Amino acid sequence: MDRSPFILILSLVVNIPANAKWTQNGVTIAGGHGQWNANNQLNWPYDLFVDDDQTAVIADYGNHRIMQWKKGDTTNGQVVVGGKGTGNGLHQLNFPTDVLLDKETDSLLIFDWGNRRVLRWPRRSGTTQGEILIDKIACWGLAMNEQRYLYVSDIQKHEVRRYQFEGIVVAGGQHAGYALTQLYHPEGIFVDTLGTVYVADSWNHRVMRWTQGDKKQGTVIAGGNGQGEGANQFHYPVGFSFDRQGNLYVADLYNHRVQRFSIE
């Protein structure tokens, strides 16, 4: 079995203009009904991806499950993986932090943080358990571009590194802080076809963008207005995704919601 981390491919290719801007007030498309385990609730949503039909698939960390929300249905989501209590069985999850779609196999790739493993879960009907692809691994946010560079967020060094044969710093690396040259506990990451790196700068309550070749300073594309529950604020954003139109979706952890920011 191939246990290389390079199986983790981006679920879709998005072309986002380098100067793109997004509306600064988000719209809740999942959760927002308090913190618990009902199908209309989330409990620390950590990351998500948005499929071609704008279905949002969310790592519901505190409920040990992966949830799916169809476009336009903000009332209830659907449990697609886990939700059977915390544990290390192949039918269980233990604090999942990341989820991607592998279109070649039509499978979900899940980073199962508490079990230190990456699971592959086929989306075909009747699937009852996942398959371990990588185990004994303690990385956090992952992304991959078309050239198969692997991007990893390091929450101890407060930086994002790109790997081929050795890592180079492409964002942050100036110690923890709130300046535009710094990151503070970066988690979710995304790399578009232009090589632009997007980072969930969690403890600064913002989403940042670093254009290719500019390692010195990033720009804030959403949030950065202090910690809060306003439409233009986050309380610990940990993961995000884009749809094919370039709209931004952010997992707002302690507000227990997913916010959508429309591209202008």
Automatic annotation (TrEMBL):
Residues 1-20 form the signal peptide. The keyword Glycoprotein applies. InterPro entries: 6-blade_b-propeller_TolB-like (IPR011042), NHL_repeat (IPR001258). NHL repeats lie at residues 182-213, 228-264. It comes from the Eukaryota. Keywords: Glycoprotein, Repeat, Signal. This is Peptidylamidoglycolate lyase. It comes from Rotaria socialis.
